[in-house]
């Protein structure tokens, strides 16, 4: 299938597919006219990549899951390396969220002191 067909079949864009290919997560062949051609199994792989991205992993993180991207990525037992990558990504996300909460609370306090009030309530 051509890149546009794969994009339509997976709910993504041709640009994202080219990015996944550049990252080494999917592969294509070139037709005589230069168009990228993907086999039918590429749709499963792309859906799995998108599922990993949707839970907060990066394309670099997704490389760890290459051996299982052509099947049901969530069906098999988790690998130790996959669990470590996911746990590390979760720690990064939690640190970013904590930093943003601190900034939000400082801004809310500055607004309160300035008499501007705020409807934002700090979250523990």
Keyphrases for this structure?
124 residues; two-stranded antiparallel sheet; 5 helices; 55% helix
Please tell me about this protein's structure:
- With 124 residues, the protein is mainly alpha-helical.
- Helix content is 55%, strand content 3%.
- A hairpin with a 5-residue loop joins β1 and β2 (36-37).
- The radius of gyration is 21 Å and the shape is elongated.
- The protein starts with a helix and ends in an 11-residue tail after the last helix.
Roughly how many Å apart are the termini?
Answer: 50 Å
Strand order of the largest sheet: 1-2
Q: Structural class, judged by helices and strands?
A: mainly alpha
Order of helices and strands: HHEEHHH
Radius of gyration (Å)? 21 Å
Share of residues in helices:
40-55%
Largest sheet: 2 strands, antiparallel
Q: How many helix segments?
A: 5
Described by the principal axes of the CA atoms, the overall outline is: elongated
Unreliable parts: none
Estimate what percentage of residues fall within beta strands.
under 5%
Total DSSP E strands: 2
pLDDT averaged over residues: 92
Topology:
Blueprint (H helix, E strand, L loop, with lengths): L2 H8 L3 H9 L6 E2 L5 E2 L4 H13 L4 H4 L17 H34 L11
Antiparallel strand pairs: 1-2
Summary of the model, kept short:
By secondary structure, the chain is mainly alpha-helical. It is 55% helix and 3% strand. It has helices spanning 3-10, 14-22, 42-54, 59-62, 80-113; strands at 29-30, 36-37.
């Amino acid at each position: 299938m051509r890149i546009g067909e794969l994009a339509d079949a997976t709910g993504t864009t041709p640009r994202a597919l080219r990015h996944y290919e550049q990252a080494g997560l999917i592969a294509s062949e070139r037709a005589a006219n230069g168009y990228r051609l993907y086999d039918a199994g590429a749709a499963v792989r792309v859906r799995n990549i998108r599922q990993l991205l949707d839970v907060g992993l990066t394309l670099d993180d997704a490389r760890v899951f290459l051996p299982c991207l052509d099947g049901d990525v969530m069906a098999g037992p988790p690998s130790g390396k996959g669990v470590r990558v996911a746990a590390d990504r979760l720690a990064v996300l939690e640190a970013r969220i904590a930093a943003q909460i601190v900034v939000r609370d400082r801004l809310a306090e500055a607004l309160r002191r300035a008499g501007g009030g705020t409807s934002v309530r700090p979250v523990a």
